[in-house]
Amino acid sequence: MKYINELHENENIKEIYLVRQRTSAVTKNGKSYDNVNLQDKTGNIDAKIWDPNSAGIDEFEALDYVEITGMVKEFNSALQISITRARKVKEGEYDPADYLPVSRFDRDTMFSELLSYIDDIKNPYLKKLCEAFFMDDPDFADRFKKSSAAKSVHHGFIGGLLEHTLSVTRLCEYYTKAYPDLKKDLLISVAILHDIGKVRELSEFPMNDYTDDGQLLGHIVMGSEMIYEKIKGIDGFPERLASEVRHCILAHHGEYEFGSPKKPALMEAMALNFADNTDAKMETFAEQLKASTSSGWLGFNRLLDSNIRKTGEV
Amino acid sequence: MKYINELHENENIKEIYLVRQRTSAVTKNGKSYDNVNLQDKTGNIDAKIWDPNSAGIDEFEALDYVEITGMVKEFNSALQISITRARKVKEGEYDPADYLPVSRFDRDTMFSELLSYIDDIKNPYLKKLCEAFFMDDPDFADRFKKSSAAKSVHHGFIGGLLEHTLSVTRLCEYYTKAYPDLKKDLLISVAILHDIGKVRELSEFPMNDYTDDGQLLGHIVMGSEMIYEKIKGIDGFPERLASEVRHCILAHHGEYEFGSPKKPALMEAMALNFADNTDAKMETFAEQLKASTSSGWLGFNRLLDSNIRKTGEV
Amino acid sequence: MKYINELHENENIKEIYLVRQRTSAVTKNGKSYDNVNLQDKTGNIDAKIWDPNSAGIDEFEALDYVEITGMVKEFNSALQISITRARKVKEGEYDPADYLPVSRFDRDTMFSELLSYIDDIKNPYLKKLCEAFFMDDPDFADRFKKSSAAKSVHHGFIGGLLEHTLSVTRLCEYYTKAYPDLKKDLLISVAILHDIGKVRELSEFPMNDYTDDGQLLGHIVMGSEMIYEKIKGIDGFPERLASEVRHCILAHHGEYEFGSPKKPALMEAMALNFADNTDAKMETFAEQLKASTSSGWLGFNRLLDSNIRKTGEV
Amino acid sequence: MKYINELHENENIKEIYLVRQRTSAVTKNGKSYDNVNLQDKTGNIDAKIWDPNSAGIDEFEALDYVEITGMVKEFNSALQISITRARKVKEGEYDPADYLPVSRFDRDTMFSELLSYIDDIKNPYLKKLCEAFFMDDPDFADRFKKSSAAKSVHHGFIGGLLEHTLSVTRLCEYYTKAYPDLKKDLLISVAILHDIGKVRELSEFPMNDYTDDGQLLGHIVMGSEMIYEKIKGIDGFPERLASEVRHCILAHHGEYEFGSPKKPALMEAMALNFADNTDAKMETFAEQLKASTSSGWLGFNRLLDSNIRKTGEV
Amino acid sequence: MKYINELHENENIKEIYLVRQRTSAVTKNGKSYDNVNLQDKTGNIDAKIWDPNSAGIDEFEALDYVEITGMVKEFNSALQISITRARKVKEGEYDPADYLPVSRFDRDTMFSELLSYIDDIKNPYLKKLCEAFFMDDPDFADRFKKSSAAKSVHHGFIGGLLEHTLSVTRLCEYYTKAYPDLKKDLLISVAILHDIGKVRELSEFPMNDYTDDGQLLGHIVMGSEMIYEKIKGIDGFPERLASEVRHCILAHHGEYEFGSPKKPALMEAMALNFADNTDAKMETFAEQLKASTSSGWLGFNRLLDSNIRKTGEV
Amino acid sequence: MKYINELHENENIKEIYLVRQRTSAVTKNGKSYDNVNLQDKTGNIDAKIWDPNSAGIDEFEALDYVEITGMVKEFNSALQISITRARKVKEGEYDPADYLPVSRFDRDTMFSELLSYIDDIKNPYLKKLCEAFFMDDPDFADRFKKSSAAKSVHHGFIGGLLEHTLSVTRLCEYYTKAYPDLKKDLLISVAILHDIGKVRELSEFPMNDYTDDGQLLGHIVMGSEMIYEKIKGIDGFPERLASEVRHCILAHHGEYEFGSPKKPALMEAMALNFADNTDAKMETFAEQLKASTSSGWLGFNRLLDSNIRKTGEV
Asked: Does the beta carbon of B181 lie under 8 angstroms from any beta carbon of chain C?
């Protein structure tokens, strides 16, 4: 298969891509044509169907897999495919993993590990709270397993939210051993729950873009709200504990300027902030190293706020 | 009546004050005594009962009005009353307005005006949402009318929250005339609702101090949550509108560093931020001018972030 | 009429535009040609006359209205007109409103309202000061009515300065009712005068660009200076009042980083800062909404420092 | 002579001090007494005359030199003199230099040097501008020679403004040799004029405190205004040059947050900012070193924003 | 034993304390006396010997343990001991642990664990570098084991540097498992070495205060220098590796404003910064919780930049 | 000679340029070609040799001077030379000054002046320290004379480091006269030494780019290290003085955010920071003025953080 990031100007292609978008338009001369956006796991590209009613153009729409015949051109210094034929293909003709970025770890295995952390929680209220999401709410669990942890930046792939959540939870467990003043059940619970608002902040793949609620409300507040709703359904959940859980969620970005309406006031809130920040930055760094083929300096990285460099062999 | 801010060292007094707190303690020599904190509308003062079991000391507790006989002393460079007699007084012997700071406007009149704003809302969902708090929830309404808008700073008196909310609402109504692109129903509704979380952020008078939830969660997030709960009880409330209302609440402090998890993205959210900020600062300035007897410079004010000065007569 | 923002590559045109600039140049081969810049209310475009001495090219200069015949080309990824004929047209052949952006309100009506505010000032010195500009100095008044309030950003059109000044004055009048500690005469006067330095900061239309003095000195200091000069011509103007007026002008941007050499120390200075800031931001937001055809998110706005979005219908 | 900073509790004194302030007051018991503030070059101290009408108390007022007999007491953890006798003394009984801080350099010599810099200016307009202040305006010149450059911080003594101005001018002359792109006449002129607004920003000694205009308008804007007034009296002063001079004055603090409404745009403005800043900081450091008797670390200095330390002998 | 933080005014004492400082002075009346500073693990206190030559006053000096007889007084609102007898005591009369704060972990056990990390390093150069300090330089090792990690703040006790270093090393080891792109040998080495400059930045106990070099150069640069010196003694140490090691040391504070002259450019440098920061903040939080007896809010903590609170029982 | 910044698209050239880089590559069709980068003092340009083995292509490599025959084309909106012939030329056929930017002052004269400053140092240790670099270490001296002071920004030419160092030293000498509290020998020494780390931070011309050590460690720390090494070779160099010298080097950028790990604590450190900053900014401004042909505004300059403008004739 020829990936989108390998296409060149003036190349004739016949490849299967995933359709992100298809809309109709009219040229100045009154002729109809279609704007199409195609995707695989390496990126996406615009395309045009200048003859939408010709015989070779199947009916298809967003999220269909379609075999595209056409030529790659340059327009406004970007590549674009001029489509001459488009055949909607059947399952089995393609491998979905070629079209959507996906975690390198098995999602079911990761999910099982997350459930085992829930299983170990002793405090009955915290345990019920976690179960309410991950065991008793299959829609949520399904959505959680498919979500990314970000639009781009880091963990921006299917299963990314699960992978990041698990990594943060493991690090928090390590903290509870190193700093025994931490309340383990509370910290593990908020680690598991800290980013659940992201299932509402980002739309599902292949879009994986900010939703309106994501921009208007944000995953921090939505996550706290989702938790508050579940807590109300749990008989006898202690009020103080409910406030502490939500505080940890609200404060997990650590600083006002990163969108937390409260700064960490509890030791567990501070620990969660460190775990979240450490995992986000280490994964970002690792993804940058993997993405780059050059040795030595990789240039300035905005998220890490530093020029970064590959370490030599040790 | 001799107010607390008029007391001097070595003065004998016999005055009625409101009790904020009374706790028992033991001296190093094993003798019991009581720590008392007394309040009137000008401030509060610590007091000691060295002989708690003597005949002249009535049974009394926090929030009682008590006639105090004793002497004012200095201890650790603060004044303190040494209580020799304490008589619990009856309603009618004192004027509550002498003991708790209170808005200079009539609270019922202000509340009626607020209700008339609600009455004018055309959008049925927004109207129902406001009514759900101010008309259908008498506990909330009662609490709202008694709350201050702040611990100190500005509007720090009974009825202060109502006074501030009304002032912001009026200013927002003015905006809707000056800037017709604003959606009036939305802006008036969020003006009325913007600080309702403060009834949970601050404890009731005479304490009027931050609650645990106030510090852990804050009135911005709690207010948004309270609104979300009421919205769920309103059939057919449009989802987009629900998000816009909550966005305005979340963004009403305007900047991350002032505790808003989102910056204003809607014109109404920006207008609400201006109205809230204008009223808070103008009232702060006016309270400072009233509190000061000197003419000319009043010194640096932290909230206004400037040296401030009384304007001369014009 | 075909507006400049509608032109396309390789299009032949014959349209009347306003000339912003015309200069002569010589190619490397020693041939003379002319650089021309053309404008209408939608923008401006560069043009070339390769044959400046040919019969079809009239004599014309900056600020003339000229009918251009030629072809639109692309050069360095911007459009450019190659002019073959240029005919200077007469008044009546075109509508000036097509060429310069102009307030949607009638300038004479707005000016009358401003004068009526001056008429209401009771303090004789402040009244004389305002009259000295708006009634006794017709050159100033004329210039003021034609100025914009900004190069771009907000109120960037003919009459914009008048419209913004009036809007700020009205809002200040509202403040004097809501916050009776404000000295009305002082606040209304400084509202009227706050931006008069802009007639020197920005050059006249169609240029409407920063002058050298605008960049070297700025409208804040120049405005204060202009006021000081007029004050010296008013017998008995109280010194303290003169300082308070100028302080309000100097402090009206509210923060050092926005170019105010002093922070607001007087309640009227703070009120003026709020009124100016509120009107600037609300108008900016409204202009953005009008300029955009898309619904929903409009992207990040640098001046408002936020992603902004159209509110849905309420 | 016993200086004010050497006084101790319970000490009987008979010393001549300069009177800064004398006001009458009444005790709670209705008895009159006088509040007095006394000064010498080491500081100032409050004093009380409990028997203002007794025989030993001369008539005297602010700025008189008075021989004080009395006892030093402690009140509210500050020292205070209880005055029993007060004799107004004659010139000759005291040395003024003991009472007011004064430059260690001869003021007439410094002033002559400043005049010689003016004498060297070639540009006739700039020369006339400087002469207009320092030669043709004897009131200004007299006030300038007596002023300090600051309330405290650095050069906070009589002649301090002259000393600082001369030091900045010399450094600017050095710059014109090192960086020949600098226009010498312009830079020397603005160096001489840069702080003239301070004669209005600070009141005369012995007060040497911010004036109302100093706080409302500041020396930067007032200095620019004073220059503009003189420029208008000079026939044919080029407009562009007038703007450049005022720009240098307005920008000489270099940053908005230090009260400059414009950042340096001209090479001379930048040079002036460096000269002013260098001299202010070097003099501050030197004054700190002189004031401290300890060797080694002197602690954190707010103006220098650093812990500072005496360098060892080299 | 009565600890220093338990002393009260007007109390007669007879207790053994550690002497931090003893200096001689002369009163105004020419009488000699001694200034003494005494310490135990709860704090320190000033004391005076008004009769230094009296029989009951033994010869003693800084770092001696002395039995003090005297009375506690208040002077300038601080407590002070007036010493009447001072007897130098012998080892065995006191428990050193009462006088100097010390790690709650066994220092030899911690040091062994640190050595075992060194033992596991595979890269021969990095191993030799660590050994050069911790195995081949007994003076360094001895000093390292006794040092604190800070003057106060966190780990401010004997063995604190060792405890912090070990904790950071363990956390880094965890990171190498969670983020396999990290070069383990490099990260473990720089974790072990990251704060060695502190043995020069802080003086030995009981002083434990910043040295001159600590203030002039800082532990970050001194640590890098110490490493560079040892590297030069190791044959064939690869240059690139030497630069990477020193970069990690220089960048381990993560931000310029925390004294790092470089921001982390290598993944190991970033990991080290996270480990150091996490351990410092978690330990600070834990120490605050231990120091406070109240439940609930502990007030604002400058280092953690937040109001902090004890979590309730979970 | 036709300079690189004068080349145009579609131009045939035959010019001598300096080769910065030559590397071999293979097209998709398997054909070999060479990537070349050519430089003169006005800039550099990419070039291709599509027929590397053709007769007209001499053997040549980086740092050779080569006569290029070919055509200028545009590729990806940048110019590029397609080389048809390449003849390696001999010394004498070209003038090196056309190919590398160089100080306008004679380097030997400047170096002599620097040595005369060293000669005047009285303190034997400081003198020996400076001599150790500039007299006893010819490799260093040679490298120093050829280095630039920066990659671009200011003094970015051969001899730039020497020119800047001399200028800073002269300014520091001026300071020692104006501020006699400064220790002259110390200040002159650290002025001479302050930027020596730059010989390791930047690679030699024609590259003049950041080295790996430059990015990982920086010239501030490397300079301090280089000094420390030399100090260890000087018998009896006082420890305190050694720390003061290094402190001045470490603090010479004045602020943490500019890469100084310490803020200036000594008067000499502060003076050095002022001298370095003044010279860097004045030279930057002067270079900008020289580079621009337009009069008036030159636009925003990032380093000077201001819009800058040519001053008119005075």
From this structure: yes
